[in-house]
Amino acid sequence: MTGTSNRSVERAFRIVDELAENGSGRVSELAERLDMPVSTVHNYLQALVSTGYVAVEDKEYSTTTRFLEVGHRQRHRLEVFKAVSDELQDIAAETGEHVTLLVEENDQCVIVAVQEGPDAVNLFAYPGARMPLHAAAPGKAILAHMPDDRVREIIDRQGLVEMTKQTITDPDVLFDQLERIREQGYAVDEGERIAGMVCLSAPVLDKGDRIRGAICVCGPQSRIDEARREEIADIVQRSANVTQVNLDYV
Amino acid sequence: MTGTSNRSVERAFRIVDELAENGSGRVSELAERLDMPVSTVHNYLQALVSTGYVAVEDKEYSTTTRFLEVGHRQRHRLEVFKAVSDELQDIAAETGEHVTLLVEENDQCVIVAVQEGPDAVNLFAYPGARMPLHAAAPGKAILAHMPDDRVREIIDRQGLVEMTKQTITDPDVLFDQLERIREQGYAVDEGERIAGMVCLSAPVLDKGDRIRGAICVCGPQSRIDEARREEIADIVQRSANVTQVNLDYV
DNA sequence: AGAACCATTCGACGGAGCCGAACGTTTACT
DNA sequence: AGTAAACGTTCGGCTCCGTCGAATGGTTCT
């Protein structure tokens, strides 16, 4: 973790990030936005094209489906993903809401799979989308099953960023909640990440009790009252258990 | 398209490719497989980790979900993908078979979306998977709607690789078929890519008659006789038309 | 036809990447 | 437990390769 790095690699991926962000770009446009010399950007783009990760069409550069491919292969190797198989779909049908599978990666909470039920609200949720661990039900479910010092490290590095007025920003409050989550077996989040949304999430553990991910159901506060909340909590816990069993027999 | 390149970029992506291929890897393992000095690979991996595209856990390096994210964003911007919306699902339900959306990229035919019907055979098909254009129904549907000299260029660069005994390897035969495909509005492939599989595919064109992609249904030869073939051909053509209309109104 | 803009090529300079070797650390075997 | 082998990581000096200004060629305006 020393400062050792490689300028070219860093720059190449800054260009990729820029392309991913804005969909496509021309040489000079990118050069300006990234504050690099035009000829340099041109060189990088040529190099990227020759790798197959970037394509040109009429001087418009864009990322290729190679990213999809690499991403999908990687996802396929995530054992949780295999184990969760049709569970997500079942939950989506049963609850009608927005269902996701998330894992931890680089101190963040990442969506791995999305399944929208018939009544699902349109969230900005797609595979690969990231969010802070502390500011959402699945993230908290994951933190609850990590060693305390690991949690503290994450807080140190990432802080407890406020996403809405409900977001937990006090470490003590967070640790209290994590304890409760361990006791009751699932996590709740009431507008802590997105105002007006309630999320319920259960952790998926493997046989060594290591945390592998979390299953999450999200819906608007107006539709999810106390009773419904308990019902959904039961469903996600049941599914997490099924997944856990699948995980051990893969 | 000159030889101008960037060694660092090339090497960085060779490492990524290797990780994508084998799922994960350790420093020395990768160093040997890629025939690079250990310390060099170590440097690259550190650089890649700092970009967020690669992660380490217990000295095991692997690609991150960042690839999924970039891939999904890119796919979302593919207008065909938006336009095809629920069509794939409908076809999968109606035919029971394996349904895909494909586009051309870098002289190749790439799967963009997959929808498996209830009876679908388990093909090795995932978003991002690539195949030669000449050796499959969707590829031929796409070639049929490209300018002839563009097709010739592709043949020059890629050749007509033989994938099964049925694969078309003679340019003249190919050009004859492309003409027939234009006439009848859809393409057929009988075991040209995978022995024993029949695929039917219709091209999706935009209002400028530019080819944007192809919708494809695949199933085992045993199940798809003459009559069924016509039925499916009608379905994919109808869906391609719907998609085309959507495309113009997006 | 001229002007403005952009992509692409070229080449000389200098700093950044490179890798062998040394150092720690983990794993495997006795 | 002790030793050896294998591996990951750090270091630093040499050199090669990336860098970017300037020139070129092409395209799209007015």
Describe the structure.
The structure is a homodimer of 250-residue chains. Chain A is of the alpha+beta class and 250 residues long. Chain A has 2 domains: 7-63, Orthogonal Bundle (Arc Repressor Mutant, subunit A), CATH 1.10.10; 71-247, GAF domain (Beta-Lactamase). Chain A is built from 10 helices and 8 strands. In chain A, β6 (187-190) and β7 form a beta hairpin. In chain A, 43% of the residues are buried. The mean pLDDT of chain A is 92. At the A-B interface, α1, α3 and α4 of A face α1, α3 and α4 of B. Chain A binds a DNA duplex (30 and 30 nucleotides) through residues 2, 4, 6-8, 26-28, 36-40, 42-43, 46, 59. Chains A, B: It comes from Natrinema gari JCM 14663. Chains A, B: This is Transcriptional regulator IclR. Chains A, B: Residues 66-249 form the IclR-ED domain. Chains A, B: Residues 6-65 form the HTH iclR-type domain.
